[in-house]
Design brief:
By secondary structure, the chain is of the alpha/beta class. The chain has a single domain, classed as Aldolase class I (TIM Barrel, Alpha-Beta Barrel), CATH 3.20.20. Helix content is 35%, strand content 13%. It contains 12 helices and 10 strands. The longest helix has 18 residues. The chain is globular. The chain starts with 13 loop residues before the first helix and ends in a 10-residue tail after the last helix. The mean pLDDT is 92. This is Radical SAM protein. Keywords: Iron, Iron-sulfur, Metal-binding, S-adenosyl-L-methionine. One of its GO terms (molecular function) is metal ion binding. Its cofactor is [4Fe-4S] cluster.
Length: 356
């Protein structure tokens, strides 16, 4: 089995694609959930620094009710990530467990600083994967990239927590995949190889190397330096030299070399994915979830069915699929590869399609 992090998997859900093609709509397959707005780190490149880490959390009871409903509607996966650090939410283990009980595959992104042993034991059995944000290979660089409220770096604690997660996974024979993600910047490129070595020693299944992505025009960090192809290849070749049967280095090639490229004009992908922020707003996608014109409704005020079938969502959906110029959207958005696939199906411009 292999990890596919640089493309889409919508072709594994052709029944939903057919439903969309025939009716113009469908229930979402994937949802990204932001359990809380606050974060224990202040990463240099944070995509949501401009909203100032609001001290808000999803109401647990409302979320559990909502999760039951979206599972019945056909949601298949839920990623706990979003604006802040999901482990800050006091009931994160209950939220994940309930989603799993409803038949939803659960993933999570975390910086792992708060992943204490007792919490890891509760979370890991209910997760399909846990991916750690690990963007430096030494304590000094880690402190610079993952700046936290404390004077000392969380580097050693994070490494210890990740090692425990792997040890517990092995001890309990759990099926959860453990991975890590490294956002390559000019400020941390010299520590990439040490990060690869460290993650391999921790026992994770892979480290994914991806470029910085500008999610919103209001982001404070602006990455003005692009890596030359030969420079990237040198780094990645050295990083990949540490691969083994149990550890992979995944270079997000499309994310680097196709950054910002789009061959389609409108967005169809937001019928298949959606996002829920820590205020309870259900919206089209990550770059626009702070913009009211892209918010469908709020789960504290309406049921999922009422939101998904609402006039407001119909208006947003029409905007996305007919008026929005997708080429002006932030690059490398999550629906991008889905949109490339859907555009070929919905707007075919290839001759002789029956000659397969």
């Amino acid at each position: 089995m292999k990890f596919s992090l640089d493309a889409h998997k919508l072709h594994h859900h052709l029944d939903r694609v057919l439903e969309f093609k025939q009716t113009g709509d469908c229930a979402p397959i994937y949802m990204e959930v932001s359990p809380c707005g606050s974060c224990n780190h202040r990463c240099l490149f944070c995509a949501y620094d401009y909203i100032a880490y609001p001290n808000r959390k999803l109401d647990t009871d409302n979320f559990i009710k909502f999760t039951t409903e979206v599972a019945k509607a056909g949601l298949k996966s839920m990623l706990f990530a979003g604006e802040g650090e999901p482990l800050i939410h006091n009931d994160i283990d209950k939220m994940v467990a309930h989603a799993k009980q409803c038949g939803i595959d659960c993933g999570m992104f975390s910086n792992a600083a708060l992943l204490k042993a007792d919490l890891a034991k509760k979370l890991l059995p209910n997760l399909t994967f846990l991916r750690f944000s690990f963007n430096a290979g030494d304590s000094q660089t880690y402190s610079k990239i993952h700046t936290s409220h404390k004077k000392s770096s969380d580097f050693e604690k994070v490494v210890e927590n990740i090692k425990f997660a792997n040890d517990y996974r092995k001890e309990q024979n759990l099926k959860v995949d453990l991975g890590s993600q490294f956002v390559l910047l000019k400020e941390n490129k010299n520590s990439l190889i040490n990060a690869v070595k460290t993650m391999k020693e921790c026992g994770v299944d892979y480290i994914s190397v991806k470029p910085f992505v500008l999610q919103n025009e209001n982001q404070l960090y602006k990455n003005n330096s692009k890596f030359e192809t030969d420079q990237l290849e040198t780094l990645i070749n050295e990083a990949k030299s540490y691969e083994s049967d149990d550890f992979k280095v995944i270079f997000r090639q499309n994310a680097f070399f196709k950054y910002g490229q789009r061959d389609y004009s409108h967005c169809y992908g937001c019928s298949f994915i959606t996002v829920l922020n820590s205020a309870g707003d259900l919206a089209s996608c990550l770059p626009y979830w702070d913009k009211k014109e892209f918010v469908y409704g709020n789960i504290n005020e309406q049921s999922f069915e009422a939101i998904w079938k609402s006039d407001k969502r119909r208006i947003v959906k029409h905007l996305l699929e007919n008026k929005l110029n997708a080429k002006q959207c932030p690059p490398n958005c999550r629906p991008n590869s889905i949109n490339e696939f859907l555009n070929e199906i919905l707007n075919p411009d290839v001759k002789h399609i029956n000659f397969i």
